[in-house]
Amino acid sequence: MHCPFCRNTDSRVIDSRTADDGSAIRRRRQCPACQRRFTTVESTSLTVIKRSGASEPFSRAKIQEGVSKACQGRPVGEDDLARLAQKVEEHIRSQGHAEIEAHEVGLAILGPLRELDEVAYLRFASVYQAFDSLEDFEAAIAVLRAEREPTGAEPARAGSDSPPTTP
Predict the structure, then answer these.
(1) For residue range 56-72, what is the model confidence (pLDDT) as tens digits?
(2) Which end of the chain is more exposed for a tag (fewer CB within 10 A), N or C?
(3) Residues 6 or more apart from 131 whose CB is under 8 A from it?
């Protein structure tokens, strides 16, 4: 690390702290030559490989932008989209890869989006899972319905909260 004041190639770390939700480290440094202090921020890079073979840095903003299209007209706010993008980034970074295929990013979005809004999930899934027919939509809806149904529990009846009365 070069000192930004005197361009000395050496510096000493005085303090280190996590920043940006733990995805970066903020370091306070001091130059041994000029004794001035400066701050650096270190973060890991995550590269997305597109279908064309081109690569670009991972961007939460692109996730939010893409998912917002699927959420048009749905009761989903900007804060919800920001949390979804954060969950996706945390999931991708937890895999430990420096590079990831764009298609894998799209698939990583599906789980959190399903929890957020089922209609938006179906819209997004139709693109990333390449739905070709109505049967593909029907199959996805059947899976959503199956996940919703309680397992082995009897459905609650109206008025069953009160104990039975004896005459």
Answers:
(1) 999 989 999 989 988 88
(2) C
(3) 125, 137, 140
As a whole number of angstroms, the distance between CA 33 and CA 36 comes to 8
Q: Is 100 helix (H, G, I), strand (E, B) or coil?
A: strand
Give the rounded distance of the alpha carbon of 51 from its chain centre: 20
Q: Do residues 85 and 137 lie in contact, with contact meaning Cβ atoms separated by under 8 Å?
A: no
What's the pLDDT band for 73 if we cut at 50, 70, 90? Answer: confident
Burial of 19 (0-12, 13-18, 19+ CB in 10 A): middle
Q: What is the H or E stretch that residue 158 is in? A: none
Decide if 24 contacts 17 (C-beta within 8 A): no
pLDDT single digits (tens) 40-57: 998 878 899 998 999 999
Tokens at residue 45, please?
């890079």
Using the Cα atoms of residue 128, residue 134, residue 139 and residue 145 in order, give the sign of their dihedral.
positive
CB-based contacts of 12, cutoff 8 Å, min separation 6: 29, 30, 31, 32
User: HSE-up of 31 (CA within 13 Å, CB side)?
Assistant: 17
Residue 151 DSSP class: S
And the tokens for 144?
Answer: 């959503």
